[in-house]
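Got a spare moment? Tell me how you read both lines of this record:
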Amino acid sequence: MNKKKGIGWATQFAALPWRIGEGGIREIMLLTSRETRRWVIPKGWPMKGKKPQQVASREAYEEAGLIGHIMGKQPLGSFHYEKRLNHKSILCEVMVFPFRVEHQLDEWPEKGQREAKWFDAREAASLVDEGGLAEIINDFAGSANRLVVFAKS
């Protein structure tokens, strides 16, 4: 976290893990948060010397054991949520990057701390608490032509 400048304090970077499942259905992986067990996507604080896309990719690995790559340099969008830290709350803006999943490892740093599960994209959108994240997932799921191009690249 970048407390010194204040800019990074309330900014996080996230991966929206996706794949084309059986029958060509777009799927999104959600995982549970450690404290509240809400369905979320992998996200984390800025890291010195790492680009936002690199942070998002690393979080996908650490939180869900996902190997893949960020598609493009621009985020799909951003959403806000209230993060509880040591008896106080801060408002966080989360920039979301599309993360094309190639495979999931058998072991990863936070395995056992979270549940990770694949969902149809529309179902995933209905399971997250943050309206802004649900909107990002729905918009991404509705961009079928882009997804087909991503799947082939």
Remarks:
- The first helix runs from residue 52 to 64.
- Strands lie at 11-20, 26-32, 39-40, 43-44, 66-70, 77-85, 88-104, 116-120.
- The CA atoms of residues 32 and 65 lie 14 Å apart.
- Residues 8-152 form a domain with the Nucleoside Triphosphate Pyrophosphohydrolase fold (CATH 3.90.79.10).
